[in-house]
Amino acid sequence: MIRALIFDVFGTCTDWRSSVAREVAAALPGLDATAFADAWRGEYQPAMERIRSGARSYTALDDLHRENLDTVCTRFGVTPDDPADLARAWERLDPWSDVPEGLARLRRDRIVAPCSNGSIALMTRLARHAGLGWDCILGAEIARAYKPDPAVYRAACAALRLAPQEVMMVAAHNSDLAAARAEGLATAFVLRPTEHGPEQATDLAPEADWDVSVGNFTELAEALA
Fold this sequence. Notes:
Catalyzes the hydrolytic dehalogenation of small (S)-2-haloalkanoic acids to yield the corresponding (R)-2-hydroxyalkanoic acids. Belongs to the HAD-like hydrolase superfamily. S-2-haloalkanoic acid dehalogenase family. The protein has helices at 16-27, 33-42, 44-52, 61-76, 83-87, 99-107, 120-130, 140-143, 150-160, 174-182, 217-224; strands spanning 4-7, 111-116, 138-139, 167-171, 186-190, 212-214. It is of the alpha/beta class. Helix 1 crosses helix 2 and helix 6 (99-107) packs parallel to helix 11 (217-224). It is globular and about 55 Å long. The mean pLDDT is 97.
């Protein structure tokens, strides 16, 4: 029996690309805000990989986002009036339209929590902005590691005092699900074909026999009813 669902957030629950581009457009008018958002996101994995590899000690994603913003601002030759506020754009992401209601349905019978690379502070503020009704905040900060490090999935299960097979990882990214399955978790793929815009070329279909594969959170709630 699945007793808890843990969720990737950036991309699976929220439309980070459009939301960040909106924040960039407001802070840096006249710029190609979508290109800037994509470039900022492009620094995400390299920044975390330095921590995964041991080249750098654990650093919260809030700080990485701020550092990455400076990198991209230099590349674009711009300086926002309030860079600290722009760095918090990741706390103001809008949810995909199916998420608030679908998440509420899923929460009726099961624990729901993020298992994100975002910090507890970031996930808490984002939940308030996007109307995400989590029962608790799990993920990178409690493990002091970044997905797909196995420690992140193990720490989430341990925090809930549940066996891995009682916990389902929900994500729009096949790689996230593969890492979770390797630790014994159940898996649910949710299709988000425009996370990276209309030209998205990855994660357009389930790439393994995940326990559940659906098109949105409403379908996920129905599949698990």
